Amino acid sequence: QLHASNQSVTFPGAVTVTGALTSSTTTIGGGNLKVFTTDTTISDGTQDYVYTVGAGVEKVEIVLGRVKTNGNDKIEVRLGYGSTPTYIGSAYISAATRVRDNNLTDAWDDDDDHWQLNFGVNSSTVQHFGQISINNAGGNRWVMHSVLGKIGGASLVQTAQELNMGQTLTTIKLTAETSFDSGTIRVVEYRIV
Predict the structure, then answer these.
(1) Strands 171-192 and 57-69
(2) Predicted TM-score of the model (pTM)
(3) Residues 187 and 98 sit within 8 Å (Cβ to Cβ)
(4) Average pLDDT over the chain, rounded to whole?
């Protein structure tokens, strides 16, 4: 048994939880918590980055490292289901803000065919960095939040988004309207197995 109150606990290596992980308010799973990591270098001309999630996924974190798109491209996220993915084509609920030079310059809310991560940047030299977190909110409902900064664009975009899929999540797709040019993508996936 481990008891902690307002303390942090650090483990030097991998941790496997057998049985239920219980707090005073929540029981998490009834199996083992496993963490999977994938690193990808984006090559010039790639339009889509597709990640296949495993069974029992509860959370997926996607970290962008200096990802550059072609020109004025927006980066979009779609969720898919099935072994040959079908991507959900509607009902992505979104809210976002952009801060530039310490001022709120844009905001939007939307019900669309994708989650949008950024505004068009009018430059082929801008690089995006930050984190996207997609979390299971129960059943087939997924909530995403992201914070992306821009090198060469001096702005910060923050989003909060939701989708009730009605199907089991199998695939996450990031799309640049034209193409990704360069950068790295790291995916960290948390599964209860």
Answers:
(1) antiparallel
(2) 0.79
(3) no
(4) 81
